[in-house]
């Protein structure tokens, strides 16, 4: 009876492991597909998800980010699902190792984000500003994304309107971008009198992220719990295979 109970428990956990990782595999495939779609046709992505997506795209390249995450989930889902189904100790150990590496990396990123938040914001702002100066008014897609962000978030540039000084846009049109002005085009001679939006987009985006930090933290905690549970299950199956 004891042996039967143990085998029944092993079979149940094995089936749960297969179904759980099958869901991860399908989710990874979905994210990979969306990532390819965003990379190929980013305009339709912006049309559907609006200002939030345009804000996020200032910080990360959503398409490539989703492709990487989707590929990782595909690998994890395959190793866990196929390893459990075939009762392969090698695949189960690979699954455990990959999830462990990701778990450790997540903890490291969280610690760095908490300890060096100010430094990270400064570095990120320092990276975004040169890109804005170089591409705004030159790359049409990049310009459209920034225009949508500045219009919807009510901001101007990365830090403020001066980010557009010495840019291709200013040299060509002689004015700051229209979204930077409350009441029409912003003249070089009177940025303050013309109602310039002095607040930068970076500060606004960071503010939005901090506002939703609780939700993000809850999601991160849930993901960490699932990772720990999946590693525990993988190790249980791995050890039980030695006893079969």
Automatic annotation (TrEMBL):
It is a multi-pass membrane protein. CDD domains: uroplakin_I_like_LEL. Pfam families: Tetraspanin (PF00335). It is found in: Lysosome membrane; Membrane. SUPFAM superfamilies: Tetraspanin. InterPro entries: Tetraspanin/Peripherin (IPR018499), Tetraspanin_animals (IPR000301), Tetraspanin_CS (IPR018503), Tetraspanin_EC2_sf (IPR008952). One of its GO terms (cellular component) is lysosomal membrane. The keyword Transmembrane helix applies. Its main location: membrane. Signal peptide: none annotated. The chain crosses the membrane at residues 12-38, 58-79, 91-116, 215-239. Keywords: Glycoprotein, Lysosome, Membrane, Transmembrane, Transmembrane helix. The keyword Glycoprotein applies. Gene3D superfamilies: Tetraspanin. Structural component of specialized membrane microdomains known as tetraspanin-enriched microdomains (TERMs), which act as platforms for receptor clustering and signaling. Participates thereby in diverse biological functions such as cell signal transduction, adhesion, migration and protein trafficking. Regulates neuronal differentiation in response to NGF by facilitating NGF-mediated activation of NTRK1/TRKA receptor tyrosine kinase and subsequent downstream signaling pathways. Plays a role in the inhibition of TNFalpha-induced apoptosis. Interacts with SLC19A2. Interacts with NTRK1/TRKA. Belongs to the tetraspanin (TM4SF) family. This is Tetraspanin. The gene is Tspan1.
């Amino acid at each position: 009876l004891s042996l039967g109970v143990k085998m029944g428990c092993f079979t149940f956990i094995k089936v749960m492991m297969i179904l759980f990782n099958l869901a991860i595999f399908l989710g990874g495939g979905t994210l990979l597909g969306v990532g390819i779609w965003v990379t190929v046709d980013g305009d339709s992505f912006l049309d559907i998800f609006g200002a939030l997506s345009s804000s996020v795209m200032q910080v990360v390249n959503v398409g490539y980010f989703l492709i990487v995450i989707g590929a990782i989930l595909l690998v994890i889902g395959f190793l866990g699902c196929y390893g459990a189904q075939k009762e392969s100790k090698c695949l189960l150990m690979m699954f455990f190792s990959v999830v462990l590496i990701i778990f450790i990396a997540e903890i490291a990123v969280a610690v760095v984000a908490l300890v060096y938040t100010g430094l990270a914001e400064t570095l990120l702002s320092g990276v975004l500003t040169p890109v804005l100066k170089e591409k705004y008014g030159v790359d049409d897609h990049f310009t459209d994304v920034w225009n949508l962000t500045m219009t919807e978030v009510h901001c101007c540039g990365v830090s403020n309107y001066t980010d557009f000084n010495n840019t291709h846009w200013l040299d060509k049109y002689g004015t700051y971008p229209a979204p930077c002005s409350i009441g029409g085009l912003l003249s070089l001679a009177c940025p303050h009198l013309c109602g310039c939006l002095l607040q930068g987009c970076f500060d606004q985006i960071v503010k939005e992220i901090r506002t939703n930090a609780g939700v993000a933290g809850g999601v991160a905690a849930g993901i960490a719990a699932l990772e720990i549970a999946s590693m525990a299950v993988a190790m249980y199956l791995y050890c039980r295979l030695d006893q079969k």
